[in-house]
């Protein structure tokens, strides 16, 4: 059962509602209106979804709480559902997540408390991703205190296991709300695991598309058909903007289309990925969407034509490979050309890099192109006989094809062939052209059956099966002899180039290798077959282009590029190695990946640098692997020297060449083989720098290339690459066979198909004459006719390079959007596309995570997303921005400034006026850059502004059109009136006989004349038709001949270019050889000259040797004769022996040196290898650190970006808050005005009610008067009746009349009195209204003043509190400083006391020492006297004199030391006094500071008391204010009571009026009746009047009392104002006092700082004094030791001269005293001089530092 809402029914019907069958194309918001209706419904639905009819495949299938997180079991469940054919799944989900197209993932909304709590809980959990070889796992981080650095303790959530891993193996995870993020750039934590997790979660819910920035879409192959490509889905995306669309292949196509229309620039959709990843499928879906959404002019492109094109191209260009069951083996560029209105005006398809050698390959597990098997199994009837297939048995021997054997495969091929025929019919291909195509394909098959064999007699090749060759010749319109001559052309027993008319003009090329070896017949047959199939494929492309192209003028084009995927057969189990064609396709993918790298990584950074935008982006580690240019350079690096073949020796002097150039160079030279190519390849790239790109393999002719940044290593086998890299010379004869066929249709078709030229390997751009798309793609054609491409026309590998160069150059000139197609498994391309049955080999789920990771790394997706997230991906020229968004600048000066001199300044002014977030944009030198959401927000604001302007313009236009329509209506009315008048006249004339005669005769007059003219015109027409047919036939014949001649001319021009290249190459080689010959001749002459010199030197040495020998012989003979035999002979022999010995010694030394050098070389090699190993280890370590730095930088950048997003979000919320506040303020102002208006209206209403009441009373009075008058009239009538019929007398009548007159007079008086009373009442009412208005005004003013007083008092209180707090903080700081100063003071005092005690102790010690020294001196003086007397006696004894002299010197030293100690003591006393004075001064300053601090404290207490008094006064003022407010409320209550009293009085007045009216009626009746009771009535009336007067007096008294109360309130308010002013004055005074206190505090602090500096100086001086005291102590210690020695000597002297001293003591007393005095003086002088020198030295060293200190102190 379906339980669907009305909106879902509309969704299922493709946007058609159930009510009106009207299509709701949501042009700019997709299905936003429907989703809003759905969001109102909070119901839950249940529906059945089948595999073929489900539209929700693009929706999120989340749980009820929006937190459904998928794991491996969910993936297995999804895979299980995919495996069941026609499954039905019952889903329950909320309407909020129905379509991704509506819910924008990054909407800025306020978070609820539950969301905040859940996010906090998730953050507290610290969940991480643990990366391992099999993928990644969710884990929880555990905090462990004692853990090694670089390690992390984790608990895996799935198993609960606790493990310790490295930090590099852990990555941060994102909150659950990002599990199915539409854009990977929106992830907070951007890393590989988070990306893989998001892709896996989306893939499990059939969300195969994911954004990766603004120009990249990731598409995972679903391996099953999904119903997300229907017309209903197209309607949802049609007309939408990029920011409004979910990730889908349609969104990329719509974005490209929208950008093309808005920017008027060519666009490109480029599909990248491995083989089997779904590139071709997405390519077709994109074209189908563009065709459906944009439409085409004159149905030039329809759905039927597209399906027909896909069927044809799939049949002719697809085959089965190891990796893909339906692999595309050609590159196609589908160009859609659009006109001014955005419709498709023309289209074309361009074919490049066709794998035409596939037609002759027989590989295990692979087949040839589908069309061959479909033709063999599907052709029937006469066509089968014409193609000579009627006699096929299925067992024919064919060297190139393997026929189908299974019945199921044959039946499928037959069905597919029927589809191909229908496709050609849809495209409008003529049967004759189709028959030619089938004939050529049949001829290819028959040529394969014919084979080739060598004739044993003539040693020439011929067909092995002549019957099959005959069939092929008949189908091609040729003979067997010509075919054999062309294919197996003989020239001296070997093969030569085919005979052609231009052969005599050709010269043998030095690059032609046909002379090296004989080409086998099978190779020649292979060459002709491959070229025939290439011509057929070009012909098919030409027919397709003719069907979908038009000559209309176009504006822009949209290119879609599909190419064969990346080939790696070893990933699917084939270990034989990749082929040369796989290398070419892999090279194409590498170049496209390099284009992706430059477009998304290099170009933005260069643009930032050019525009002077500060931007930091850390590239990934492994610089040589992070850039695809390294592997591209290894493949196609251009050779600078194309003449001389490089080798290992000269490799250092020349640059390395790419693999393709090496292969081409190796194929040129004779004798080269596949082994030599491999050897040269590793010679160029075998060093350590290229080990990570190129590796050797264990197999024969095998090597490994690390493609895609090392993530996809491919094993290549180079067997036969030299043959594949050169063009087969027989191939060029295929075109001559087709064009020179005896069948005219053959020649016409293939000449027309080659109208634009072709190449030998790369296909052509064919079939369109003057097409706009081909003119835009002219760079591809130019590569084949000029430059190096024309020179290398025979080199297939270099032609591939030049073709790819042209393709990339074409794409660079457009705006490119990349679609990265991803393989979920290695065998995903082998799944059946027509069913949902999938054979999966991976038991862990449907996604192979390591494979997915390698594709993400190889495609540099993470780097691109990080750059997009951190950078500013959107940019616009400054002039364009100013022109486009000046509507949003509200300032007229900024907005209306048309032309400016400084664009940047103008844009800055605009941005400042627009109030944009500064983090969302950067202004460069010529462009402005935006973040992801900034430009979309600006566009939406601009659209809103434009919508208002357009609405205004539409209103004016409608008015203008209405006015024009009115004028037209008036003219039509006039014309209708004129026609009516003429018709009326005609109706009058119609029956006249002469009119009838005129109508009948006038046509007959021109019959004969018209028949003659018709006859002449028909004759002229027939003549012109015959001439036209003749001219047309001549034109077609001439056109055919012209095309034929042009094709031949192009071939001749190509040959000419080749001849020119041959001649230039030969000339270059000749110049090189001549230069080499000249160099060698020069070297030969030099070597000959050196040889001559050496010969002459050797001859001279030989002659000298002969002369020396002859001299020795003569000398020996003479010696023999004269002196004896053998002297010189012995010498000669000895010399010869010595020479031989030295020779042997030198030889042995040389051998030893050689061995030593060899050992040293081995050691150096070992060290070098160790160094390389260390370098490699260091590289690994550096790589690890780089990865860590990259990881940390990525996390830091993610956090920065998140912070910026939060800041932007906060700024936006603040803006919204400010806007809301302004709006609320405006609403409050409007409410206030409305209240004022309401009060005014109420007052007017009251006035109107009063007027109404007065009018009603007047009307009542008038009615009463009328009634009274009627009653009077009735009374008068009765009186009259009584008078007439009563019979009374005249006297009575006169009396009555008198009474009546009196009553009337009284009545008139009473009426006057009543009028006076009414006037008084009215005056009272007016006074009452005035009082009410005054009271209301006073109440409002009182409220306003009370509010103002409240606000002012609140401000005063807040300011006072702030000031009190600041003063308290200052006082606390001062108290702290005071405590610190007191502590320092106590410390200083303690130190000073200790210093003083030390000084006193030292003084006491010094005094005791001096006393002791004095005593010692006295004793020594006495001893010296004795010694002097003794010395005088013993003058003759010389030893005694020396001893005495020595003792004198010692005594002098002691005396000098004593004097120095005394002087030092004096200086220390002086310094001590100075320090005491400084200490006293510091104490005095400290006391002053304490006094000031106490004063400040007192002032602070006074200020605090004043503040308390101010607060008390403020409280009293508030109390008074509250009392006044309460009094005012009481007064208001009293006023309300008075108002109620006034209303009661009004009611009483009305009642009195009524009573008065009644009284008047009664009075009149009394007057009429003449009753005596009138006096009583009058008395009563008078009483009532008195009561009214008393009430009036009461009201006046109440009014006076209210006036008194109002005056009292005014006095109270004035008193409050005076109190407030007094409080303000007091506050101002308190602030002044606070300022004064602050100044005093600053002065006290300065004084304290100065005192502290002085104390520091005193401490320094004290330290110096202590040092001096220590020096003096050391000096005294030395002096004591000296004195001890002297005392010992003196004791010895005393013991020696004890006896003599007693005798001579009395005699020489006076002389001894004189001598002692002189000796004391000498000792003192000596000590003083010595001490002075020491002091001078000491003070000279200390003076510099002391001078500096004193300078600083000063």
Automatic annotation (TrEMBL):
Q: Which residues form a coiled coil?
A: 1007-1104, 1129-1216, 1259-1682
Q: Where is the composition biased (Basic and acidic residues)?
A: 1730-1739
* Record has Nuclease as a keyword: no
Q: Does the keyword Translocase apply?
A: no
Q: Where is the composition biased (Polar residues)?
A: 1740-1754
UniProt-annotated stretches for the region Disordered: 495-516, 1698-1754
- List the keywords (alphabetical): Actin-binding, ATP-binding, Coiled coil, Motor protein, Myosin, Nucleotide-binding
Instruction: Name the SUPFAM superfamilies on file.
Output: P-loop containing nucleoside triphosphate hydrolases
A Pfam short name: IQ
Q: Myosin motor domain spans which residues?
A: 179-943
Q: Which superkingdom does the taxonomy of this entry point to?
A: Eukaryota
Quote the biased-composition stretches of kind Acidic residues, using this chain's numbering. Answer: 1700-1710
- Where, in this chain's numbering, is ATP bound? 273-280
The entry's family comment says: Belongs to the TRAFAC class myosin-kinesin ATPase superfamily. Myosin family.
**Which protein are we looking at?**
Unconventional myosin-XVIIIa isoform X2
Q: Which species does the entry assign this protein to?
A: Nicrophorus vespilloides
